[in-house]
Amino acid sequence: MNIGSAIVKTFTSQAIVSAITSTIFIILLGFFLRKRGVFGPNFGKVLTKVVLSVAIAALSFNSFMQPINEKSMHQGIGVLIWGFVIYILLIFISPLLYSGQKRDRKEVMGILTTFGSTTFFGIPIVGAIYGAEGVLYSSIFNIGYRIFLYSYAYIKMSGLKMEKDNIKKMFLNPIVIATLLGFILWLIQPLMPTITVPLMKNGVAAGGMTQVAFYRIDQTAVWLWRPLNYLSSLASPLAWLAIGCTLGSISIKEAVTNKLSWYYSFNKVIIVPLLNLVILLILNAVHILPLNYVAIATVVIMMATPTATVAAAYAISYDREAVLTSNASLLSTVSAVVMMPIWIALLGILQSAGIFH
């Protein structure tokens, strides 16, 4: 298929177009309601807490309630490996993008460029476009992200050694618990006792029988899976409303005059995901790390996200370029909202053109 046909196919795909418009429209709705005063100044923070402590935790866990086979296991392990490799690479590469800056600023901008808002911004978009498979890969990818974010980023930003409180944050975070538990349960399915139950699809009987591990609640305990599914379905709309609400609370006028913030935003939402895409396509072509379309697209979208909230909080808390961090966070969020539909379309075009499958 030539590129022209691939473009047409991508922009006539109802799934892709509706995912893009849903993201943009709900973010704009949050922005409008905040500007009109319907949402108060702290409403975005409340929504964020609900999304991070409940909705995405449920989404991450439920994403692992699916069959495992040799192909999906290889894909998942490949994403897990890449999740560690790319952060190690970015830790060394990102500061080089700011070589003309003073040491402290170079270090801070390097960390902000390395760590994006993969959980809050990335997973809801991935889930809306690629469904359970995308959420599965994004949750696995985030294992490495969280380890480096709560260890390396914290130590570099604070100038301190790893503290007990931060280790608690790393391992007692609801999303981390849900992800690790779900990942382990998904991996050990072939080793667990199985039961034969009526086949269920999205909580509804699909006809026939199936044999699954006893803890596959999507098949064996729909009464438990369904409330988790309701909670997980809140992740995308609430996250997008919170993003719009946050944008509506901040003065963009001050941030747009800062050239370094623009340069950072370009690096964060264009250069970093492009680097991931190019390397993964090369590794896929030479069969070193063969990943399918959904796995590669998930990684690219996760890396095209704006500044990680935790990384920005580190910078502000320890007075490490606090004003610059705030401006960079704002502009990268606006830039990510603009670039995300472009990345989604580009990935769809590459798939349609047969670049990867």
TrEMBL record:
The chain crosses the membrane at residues 15-34, 46-65, 77-98, 110-130, 136-155, 171-192, 230-250, 262-287, 293-316, 328-350. It comes from Limosilactobacillus coleohominis 101-4-CHN. Keywords: Cell membrane, Membrane, Transmembrane, Transmembrane helix, Transport. The keyword Transmembrane applies. Coiled coil: none annotated. It is found in: Membrane. One of its GO terms (cellular component) is membrane. It is a multi-pass membrane protein. This is Transporter, auxin efflux carrier (AEC) family protein. Its main location: membrane. InterPro entries: Mem_transp_PIN-like (IPR004776). The lineage of its organism: Bacteria, Bacillati, Bacillota, Bacilli, Lactobacillales. GO terms for biological process: transmembrane transport.
